[in-house]
Amino acid sequence: MTPEDFENSTLDYLAHKTGIDKTRWSRYRTGKVSINHSTLEKAAANLGMTTSALLQGIEKCRNKLACAKTQ
User: How many Å apart are CA 58 and CA 29, to the nearest integer?
Assistant: First the structure.
């Protein structure tokens, strides 16, 4: 998954793939909560991404709040 793929992923998809609930993903994407290193590593592995790519995807979402999808 690329940062762009992450940006276009729904919260449901991210929750399903990572086991992290939708509310938490929404908070990561909007910048209300920072993702800790352990969670970052596990989520990146489950999404088939590097931690760097996942951080880039999260940052893209913070800069463009439209990717905080609810479905």
Answer: 5
* Res 54 pLDDT > 70: yes
What's the domain range around 58?
3-67
Contacts for 6 with CB less than 8 Å, ≥ 6 apart = 14, 47, 49, 53, 54, 57, 58, 60, 61
Please give the biggest Cα pair distance in the chain: 26
Mean pLDDT of 26-47: 95
Q: What is the structure's pLDDT at 62?
A: 87
The count of structural domains within the chain is 1
pTM: 0.86
pLDDT at 63: 84
Domain harbouring 54, CATH code: 1.10.260
Query: Cα dihedral sign for 51, 52, 55, 61?
Result: negative
